[in-house]
């Protein structure tokens, strides 16, 4: 999938002016306010009122939320209704729900529980299962490990890699976490103030960053530099 132009403005102010290609998995990395979330919202057709968007892309599928495009949000604890059983928050047949639950490694008895009764990792896996209901071609990840402990974070990233191999969807992973980007994504784009300052193969960029902003993000994310040896 190639996005040749994504141009977002509010009044006369340019908020995002970028282009990128998702070959298999792409991390869009930057600090808060860099334009990451606006990029996701633009691809979902969910930009706030008043913003103007020019989007040019080429892909083998239609960019349509709920069908070919699905989102895994940042916080699983706020993604679902706390007063509704998990099984009632799926829009699929019982057989399909059970199959998806098995694919994300969840016990079927959890379907009868309410969201507050699940752990963070269980809840995020349930949300991922919901995102896969329509067999999306593009999975958008909005920092889905932020609210999780380190061990659960690794488990979710490994699960996403396994599911990508199984389902064949492309991934756009929005994050500020260089370590997670390195674990999940083949390619990386570093965004600052709505513009891409560096892009390329993830491991190559992390090992030899050219932009000062990229180096700053790396220093902030990694306590040691073993990955650069």
Task: From the structure above, extract its key features.
229 residues; alpha/beta; Rossmann fold; 6-stranded mixed sheet; 3-stranded antiparallel sheet; disordered C terminus
What does this protein structure show overall?
By secondary structure, this protein is an alpha/beta fold. The protein has a single domain, classed as Rossmann fold. The chain is 33% helix and 26% strand. The chain is built from eight helices and nine strands. The protein has helices spanning 36-44, 76-79, 94-103, 120-131, 150-167, 178-184, 202-207, 212-221, and strands spanning 2-10, 13-21, 25-29, 51-58, 69-72, 138-142, 170-175, 187-192, 195-201. The protein has a six-stranded mixed β-sheet with strand order 5-6-7-3-8-9, sandwiched between helices. Strands 2-1-4 form a three-stranded antiparallel β-sheet, with helices on one face. β6, α5 and β7 (170-175) form a beta-alpha-beta unit. α3 crosses α4 (120-131). It is globular, with a radius of gyration of 18 Å. It starts with a strand and ends in an 8-residue tail after the last helix. Mean pLDDT is 91; it is low at 223-229.
Write a brief caption for the model.
This protein is an alpha/beta fold and 229 residues long.
Helix content: 25-40%
**Count of runs of 4 or more consecutive helical residues:** 8
Proper CATH architecture: 3-Layer(aba) Sandwich
Please give the order of strands in the largest beta sheet: 5-6-7-3-8-9
Q: Main β-sheet: number of strands, strand sense, barrel status?
A: 6 strands, mixed
Structural class: alpha/beta
Strand content: 25-35%
